[in-house]
């Protein structure tokens, strides 16, 4: 092989790398999908008030599910608070299995954690009081701070339905 053929081969390789590294430009598609529900053909999918409002309406028509000040500038324990909130939600859904009709709302004030939600009145009051005490005791032991449950009950599951899509 001579020098010119080597240069031609190197030029071909450079050309191939340029072709494979092209920048493709297309129109931007601003389509947000998260937190939105599709309309069903029969319009029989029930939505609660929390589910009916899209995510961009948080703080206008809908509030946050976790209330804390750790996410502010200079806040402490940001990651620990997020992990604790997720643990609380999983614990509540496991302990109050199939009874929660709304989202679990977690409000932190100083050292106190208040947990709120709407539950179905499908169990006896004695068992409900037991579960309230059980939940408060275990969560306060694990999280090392006082826990207060603020639960509302409803007799019919359809009472929390805001609209059908």
From TrEMBL:
Pfam families referenced in this protein's UniProt entry, alphabetically: MRP-S24
Coiled-coil annotated spans: none
Locations listed in the record: Mitochondrion
Gene Ontology annotations of biological process type: translation
Keyword hit for RNA-binding: no
Keyword tags: Mitochondrion, Ribonucleoprotein, Ribosomal protein, Transit peptide
Family, as annotated: Belongs to the universal ribosomal protein uS3 family.
UniProt keyword Ribosomal protein present: yes
Protein name according to UniProt: 28S ribosomal protein S24, mitochondrial
